[in-house]
Design a protein that fits this description.
- The mean pLDDT is about 80.
- By secondary structure, the chain is of the alpha/beta class.
- Helices cover about 30% and strands about 15% of the residues.
């Protein structure tokens, strides 16, 4: 579905991070930058004690897709919403962070997201870039990349054999696998055209 608002959107609590994490400074700074540049940002503070669908400052993650670009910034730990925003189908600005999830190293800058320095010093520059370059650049969203990977996995396998890798001598002598694993290896060696 096409975005309704041609801005960078973020809803969250700017005061939630503990004082000893950098986001205790950068979340309020994000709000300040947004307030000073209302033509390109909607940075909305949501009081963490008042999160509900009745709160006019609250917006669910699916409803955030009304914005043409989304941003994610860390909090006290990793960002719980990042995995959902990656599937939003929107360009995603990710602020550098200390706490990352297991999949973070698989994300490719300028393919799956637009990186922004932790201190937000390049936020305006990157926002301009994504606003003007993303539509014409040959960039896919993370969701599109996942779809392409799934489609490719449906293609014929590269090696058309049954494969197993493991230690044939690892089971204790009193378990059945101490006999079946060496037997599996023997059968595989005798039938290399179908076993690897």
């Amino acid at each position: 579905e096409a975005p309704i608002i041609n801005k960078v959107g973020w809803y969250g609590n700017i005061y939630s991070p503990a004082k000893d994490v950098i986001e205790s400074q950068t979340r309020p700074l994000l709000k300040k930058i947004g307030d000073e540049n209302k033509d390109i940002f909607d940075i909305i503070h949501v009081d963490g004690n008042k999160i509900s669908s009745k709160n006019t400052n609250y917006l669910s993650i699916p409803d955030l897709t009304k914005y043409s670009v989304l941003i994610d910034i860390g909090g006290n730990g990793y960002s719980g919403r990042l995995k959902y925003l990656l599937f939003s189908g929107r360009p995603l600005i990710i602020v550098e962070r200390n706490y990352i999830e297991y999949f973070h190293d698989d994300l490719i800058p300028y393919v799956h997201f637009i990186p922004v320095k932790m201190d937000l010093s390049d936020l305006l520059e990157k926002t301009e870039w994504v606003t003007y370059s993303w539509p014409s650049a040959n960039i896919t969203s993370f969701a599109d990349t996942v779809k392409q990977t799934i489609e490719k996995s449906k293609e014929a396998p590269i090696i058309n054999k049954v494969g197993w890798y493991g230690n044939i001598y690892s089971p204790a002598k009193d378990v059945i696998e101490s006999q079946t694993r060496p037997l599996l290896k023997k059968i595989g060696d005798e039938n290399k055209d179908i076993f690897d």
